[in-house]
Amino acid sequence: MKIVKHSGDVVDFEPEKLRKSLMKSGADSLIVDDIVNKINKEIYEGIATKHIYKRAFGLLKKEANSHAARYNLRAALQLLGPAGFFFEKYIARLFSAEKYEIRNNLILQGRCVSHEIDVLVKKNDVIAMVECKFHAGREAASDIKVPLYVLSRFNDLKGKEHVIFSKEETVSKCWIVTNNRFTSDATEFAKCSGMSLLSWDYPKNDNLKTKNDIDCLYPVTCLTTLSIAEKDKLLILDIILVKEIMNNSNCLEKIGLSAARIKNVLKEVRELSRCVLKL
Questions:
Q1: What is the pLDDT of residue 263?
Q2: CB 147 within 8 A of CB 101
């Protein structure tokens, strides 16, 4: 059976690939097998992958909102736009969870020109600049032009002293992060140039997908019990991660939810705060 991807490419339908993606939602194998069997009976030649995803999402949601939320992660990252400001905050939270000190949106003077840096992180006395490349479209990829451009900015900044965290410090490392993917030439150039990359699926065992499932770092935009407008209100209140609602549940009152809806949201929050993968 042939299916059509978001990019327009026509590929074979692979039930096992669907099964693996469903298992990452936290649903047990019996539920996953049942969903795969139902979708197997419903697909037809030329069906779009987005329709398969929508059907799988709906079936998962009937079992548990948290399963659907995890399955919805990539789409949830796209809701951190449209300009990517909240994506930058989200990435800062990911580094903070790994015990980095964080600074957002600083302007640093290089040898030639000044640069606005999305995120600056510090750990073990090493300071790195983090450039965030947000894509609103699912198929967009960061190609070699991105690390070429970022490397030129990094070279202008490194070796020059700046007041960043508490004293005159220098930037000595560079990260590029995207919610989508890097092309192969972008990853090769970055490796050769000593730059670190982080994307939806790169590096293989330490990417945005695995960081979320291992450390429960889900963005609030993945919650299935909230509308898009309500998620936006939480982001404006600087509630970026689902787990931040646990100790700040009054934020749900601030965005106008009823007591009954707050109860439903908190149930999903508690379930998402139980990680499904372990190192």
A1: 96
A2: no
| Cα–Cα dist 207/205, whole Å | 6
Q: Quick one: pLDDT at residue 81?
A: 82
160 touches 111 (CB < 8 A): yes
Domains of the chain: 2-63 (no CATH), 85-211 (3.40.1350.10)
Contacts of 217 (CB under 8 A, 6+ apart): 93, 94, 97, 211, 241, 243
What is the spatial distance between Cα 128 and Cα 134, in angstroms, rounded to a whole number? Answer: 19
Angle at which helices 15-23 and 29-42 cross, to 10°:
140
Residues in the chain where the model's pLDDT stays below 50: 277-279
Q: What is the Cβ-side half-sphere exposure of residue 124, based on CA atoms within 13 angstroms?
A: 3
Predicted TM-score (pTM) above 0.85:
yes
Omega within 30 of 0 (cis) for the link into 147: no
- 166 CB-near residues (< 8 Å, 6+ apart): none
Cα–Cα distance between 66 and 72 in angstroms, integer? 10
Residue 136's pLDDT is 85
